[in-house]
Design a protein that fits this description.
This protein is an alpha+beta fold. It has three domains: 219 residues, 3-Layer(aba) Sandwich (Rossmann fold), CATH 3.40.50.300; 82 residues, Translation factors (Elongation Factor Tu (Ef-tu), domain 3), CATH 2.40.30; 105 residues, Elongation Factor Tu (Ef-tu), domain 3 (Beta Barrel). Helix content is 17%, strand content 33%. The protein is built from eight helices and 23 strands. Strands 7, 8, 9, 10, 11, 12, 13 and 14 form an eight-stranded antiparallel beta sheet that branches. The protein has a six-stranded mixed beta sheet with strand order 2-3-1-4-5-6, with helices on both faces. Strand 5, helix 7 and strand 6 form a beta-alpha-beta unit. The termini are far apart.
Length: 435
């Protein structure tokens, strides 16, 4: 029988609460899984039998304490090796906010997993071991967070207990990272000295570092402002499903279901449909709970339009005077995720929002060294875990925005048509952008 923690919020309490998605990143053994375990434990999100299981596993493996990392290292191979090899997603909530955590691996060979876990994050937590300072992996993950346009970055200088809670060591690492961050696109960067093992500055303020005048990590996660991170200017609504009458009672109902990818939609708004270019007006906006007066990202809604306009899956609803780029010739930064190299003349399926087309790689512009930020312009292929700039030609036009403007309409995945496996992820650029 599973015994629930007493402080978990009820489902009724969670309704309408804000959701923050964040990822953790850093080098191997920097303490990512331990930090998440500490967050879950100190916010009383752990079931009693889960904690007993972790305590037993810790004793069995010879630890003199409860190994909190075992709370998140769910795969047996991970527990046995003591590393994270896959993206582990965890959920918890406090009275102020709900959270989804992506615990991503630190090894270089799992860069693809880090990209996957961070692709939808509002915030990235990069851990740095206070003893080792910035490593190549620290820089790599910070750069990838910047490349993925994660709006907020928190640098946690971990294991402060192993450097005698040294303020000078913390300031040294903070200054070094700040210098490196001048090369990044991220503008909101915070620094917090912590000990994930002992809980200092994770949920509660540390008594061992009175010189630190900032807030603990949990307080920062609860209060960081994310509402303005969404694009509320450019209306983008990719049609996912056409809702047709299911009974004689609703024989005149015809709606278009999907997820709002940008802007704010309201009944009475004038809209245009791509690729047809036909214009209409929003008659109503329906949700599972009934009609609403407005819709914004990332709400899932059904639009009803005035007049008889033919829409289908993959069409895009936008404003008549604010349309996305329409094009077949694409430039993108691509993260390649399989052993078989990506090179010129490679044909793949490309899934963008609700639209799937075929795309031919016409040119690999350069491969990016994410450790040094150097561009290898002599590269003609991308290998496993490589990131580079690629030109492609799609068989039919996409309706997109640059990734820097809209992460939802500016991203895509590449699929091997023979295996149906996802082999790459991309971020669309404006053709004139020199990145």
């Amino acid at each position: 029988m599973t015994t629930a923690p007493t402080d978990l919020l009820s489902s009724a309490d969670l309704q309408g609460m804000d959701l923050l998605r964040f990822s953790t990143a850093g080098s191997v053994d920097d303490g990512k899984s331990t930090l998440i375990g500490r967050l879950l434990l100190d916010t009383k999100q752990i079931f009693a039998d889960q904690l007993e299981h972790v305590e037993e596993a810790s004793r069995r493996q010879g630890f003199g304490r409860t190994e909190l990392a075992l709370l998140t290292d769910g795969l047996r191979a991970e527990r046995e090796q003591g590393i994270t090899i896959d993206v582990a997603y965890r959920y918890f909530a406090t009275p102020r906010r709900k959270f989804i955590i992506a615990d991503t691996p630190g090894h270089v060979q799992y860069t693809r997993n880090m990209v996957t876990g961070a692709s939808t994050a509002n915030l990235a937590v990069v851990l740095v071991d206070a003893r080792n300072g910035l490593t190549e992996q620290s820089r790599r993950h910070a750069f990838l967070s910047s490349l993925l346009r994660i709006p907020h970055l928190v640098v946690c200088v971990n294991k402060m207990d192993l450097v005698d809670w040294s303020e000078s060591r913390y300031e040294e690492i903070r200054s070094e990272f700040a210098r490196f961050a001048t090369k990044l696109e991220t503008t909101d960067i915070s620094f917090i000295p912590i000990s994930a093992l002992h809980g200092d500055n994770v949920v509660d303020s540390s008594q061992n570092m009175p010189w630190y005048g900032g807030t603990p990590l949990l307080y920062h996660l609860e209060h960081v402002h994310i509402a303005s991170d969404r694009n509320l200017v450019d209306v983008r609504f990719p049609v996912q499903w056409v809702v047709r009458p299911q009974s004689d009672t609703h024989h005149d109902y015809r709606g278009y279901a999907g997820t709002v990818s940008g802007g704010v939609l309201k009944p009475g708004d004038d809209v245009m449909v791509l690729p047809s270019g036909l214009e209409s007006t929003i008659a109503s906006i329906d949700t599972f709970d009934g009609p609403v007066d407005e819709a914004f990202p990332p709400m899932s809604v059904t639009l009803r339009l005035a007049g008889d306009i033919d829409l289908s899956r993959g069409d895009m609803v936008c404003r008549p005077n604010n349309q996305p780029t329409v094009g077949q010739d694409l430039e993108a930064m691509v993260s390649w995720m399989v052993d078989r190299p990506l090179g010129e003349r490679t044909m793949l399926a490309l899934k963008h929002t609700t639209r799937t087309v075929r795309a031919l790689v016409s040119d690999v512009r350069y491969r990016l060294d994410v450790n040094t930020l150097h561009r290898d312009e002599d590269a003609t292929t991308l290998g496993l875990n490589d990131i580079g700039r690629v030109r492609m030609r799609a068989t039919s036009p996409l309706f997109y925005d640059p990734y820097t403007r809209n992460r939802m309409t500016g991203s895509f995945i590449l699929i091997d048509e023979a295996t149906n496996n996802t082999v790459g992820a991309g971020m669309l650029l404006e053709p004139s952008v020199a990145l």
